[in-house]
UniProtKB/TrEMBL annotation:
Keywords, sorted A to Z: ATP-binding, Nucleotide-binding, Plasmid
Name this protein carries in UniProt: Pilus assembly protein PilQ
Superkingdom as given in the UniProt entry: Bacteria
Any single GO CC term annotated in Swiss-Prot or TrEMBL for this entry: plasma membrane
InterPro entries in UniProt: P-loop_NTPase, T2SS/T4SS_dom
Pfam families assigned to the protein according to its UniProt record, in alphabetical order: T2SSE
Bacterial type II secretion system protein E domain span: 92-477
Organism lineage string: Bacteria, Pseudomonadati, Pseudomonadota, Gammaproteobacteria, Enterobacterales
Keyword Nucleotide-binding tagged: yes
Family per record: Belongs to the GSP E family.
């Protein structure tokens, strides 16, 4: 049990109290986190006390009220003053050890990011595990503020400000010496002011323990074949698309490593922000503190390269630079933020890339879309047919219309020791690979995106929706989570006409018969 001071540097909330209230009330926080406002009986209905209660509620503090004698309140407040006087300011080394402990626990729990939410009263830390935020720990606001400032000011480099800004976004890179022992290759710090304080996120950049195959990532055999054909060409741009955190960078790394392993004489150079997992056979470079992507690409062109990996195309200059590199006889792998790969051309148009570039199938060779879906825990997942009433009717309708219900499993949140009661553990990639040819380009520019997409699908293209349904029917992912977070289960039904769907099935049947 702890008494929280009501005035001064550590005040809760942080504003001044009338003098006569200092000996009349105190705020007590119990071990279970609940709070009680203790009020001397003569003051319990005073205007000043009611105003203070209003301010506590305005600061989103939940509390109960307890009437006490004046002497009891005096003793409580003396206890608070004594605690403050005895409280020692932690050293820089102590703070750094605590931050490293947080990062270490995040790595142990397979987190991809650490979120630090600093508010007026409290600081809460979350880990992003398998795509979801999970509560880790809570601190007093002042303690959390020390952690954020120590991390940014003493454990980072390339800071965008001299110290963490509470008025505008801040960015920095965590120094390697603080994360290498944790099995990380780096960390990226970013913060942004909020209405309550500051949100800081540390992206944990992990080192892959072994080389991965395309199949291990979740690509199907036809998708692997399409990618193999794309990377076997002498020039072109291969775009990897999807939302943030969908695994684009990992796929780029795997393909880059595949290319350098097969051709030892290939000079493949990357520009990343920051450099992530090591790529065997590649020369990896980091985007400079004040360097733009297009500037980095222009610089690399003077280094006698065969293939270049560009961490991100994000504006007109970087997009144009990527296309110019391919036009001059080089191969380019890069990422682009779009919802679906078929939207890549429209996205490049919005970046004002020259039409000659975006209509040339010899330049834009392949478009890859990707998502990551949490895998069901094999030890506790539950059969859909036995537990379908656990989910909303709208999801029941989708599952029974588009899935093989006898093979579907649902997430089970309980006491499973294997997944710590989350129902999921690890993630699997779900892909859509559009191999671009001249006919696809002609249809896109003459008749629009829909006709180009229909053409690809009729030729046997596997959609994101189709691969999502496949994993659901294999009992590997939860259909409700997949519909909400990966791809709506009825997307292909909504996007393609019945005639197009039938032509696609006919093409697949013919292909299977010929094998």
């Amino acid at each position: 049990m702890k008494v929280l001071p009501l005035s001064g540097k550590h005040a809760v909330p942080d504003d001044r109290l009338p003098e006569k209230l200092k000996e009349a009330i105190c705020l007590v926080k119990r071990d279970d986190g609940s709070m009680t406002l203790k009020i001397a009986s003569p003051f319990i209905n005073s205007i000043e006390v009611m105003e203070y209660e209003r301010r506590l509620k305005a600061n989103h503090i939940s509390f109960g009220v307890d009437a006490c004698t004046l002497s009891e309140i005096v003793e409580w407040n003396k206890s608070a003053e004594s605690d403050i006087k005895n409280e020692e300011e932690p050293t820089e080394q102590t703070l750094q050890k605590k931050i490293i402990k947080i990062l270490s626990d995040a790595v142990t729990q397979r987190a991809s990011d650490v979120h630090i939410r600093l508010e007026k009263i409290v600081c809460t830390v979350y880990f992003r595990i398998d795509g979801k935020l999970a509560y880790y720990e809570e601190y007093a606001a002042e303690e959390g503020n020390r952690y954020v400032n120590c991390l940014y000011n003493t454990m980072c480099l390339h800071q965008s400000h001299a110290s963490v800004s509470y008025a505008e976004p801040s960015d920095a890179k965590v120094r390697e010496e603080y994360v290498q022992s944790l099995g990380l290759t780096g960390g990226r710090f970013a913060s942004r002011p909020t209405s309550e304080g500051l949100l800081s996120v540390i992206r944990l950049i992990t080192r892959r323990g072994r080389a991965l195959s395309l199949n291990a990532l979740g690509l199907t055999a036809p998708q692997e074949a399409a990618l193999e054909r794309a990377i076997s060409k002498p020039t072109g741009v291969l775009f990897f698309t999807g939302p943030m955190g969908s695994g684009k960078s990992t796929l780029v790394q795997v393909i880059s490593e595949l290319m350098t392993q097969r051709d030892k004489g290939l000079h493949l150079v990357t520009v990343e922000n920051p450099v992530e997992s090591p790529i065997k056979g590649a020369v990896q470079t980091a985007l400079g503190p004040k360097e733009e992507w297009w500037q980095a690409v222009k610089s690399l062109m003077r280094l006698d390269i065969n293939c270049i990996v560009i961490g991100e195309v994000r504006d007109h200059l970087s997009a144009t630079a990527a296309m110019e590199v391919a036009q001059t006889g080089h191969y380019v792998l890069t990422t682009l933020h779009t919802t679906h790969p078929v939207d890549t051309i429209a996205r490049l148009k919005s970046l004002q890339v020259d039409n000659d570039f975006i209509s040339d199938a010899a330049l834009i060779t392949c478009l890859v879309g990707q998502r990551l879906a949490p895998k069901l825990c094999p030890h506790c997942k539950k059969r859909y047919l036995e537990h379908k009433n656990d989910i909303l009717p709208v999801f029941q309708g989708l599952i029974e219309t588009f899935c093989q219900t006898s093979r579907v499993y649902l997430k089970n949140t309980g006491d499973c020791k294997h997944c710590e009661g989350k129902g999921v553990k690890g993630r699997v990639g779900i892909f859509e690979v559009i191999e671009v040819d001249a006919e696809w380009m002609r249809r896109y520019h003459e008749r629009g995106k829909t006709h180009a997409y229909d053409y690809w699908y009729q030729k046997g293209g596997q959609t994101l929706c189709e691969n999502t349904l496949r994993l659901i029917n294999e009992g590997r992912i939860d259909p409700v989570m997949a519909h909400k977070e990966v791809c709506n289960l009825d997307r292909d039904f909504m996007v393609f006409t019945e005639d197009i769907r039938e032509k696609s099935q006919h093409h697949r049947r013919a292909s299977n018969e010929s094998i």
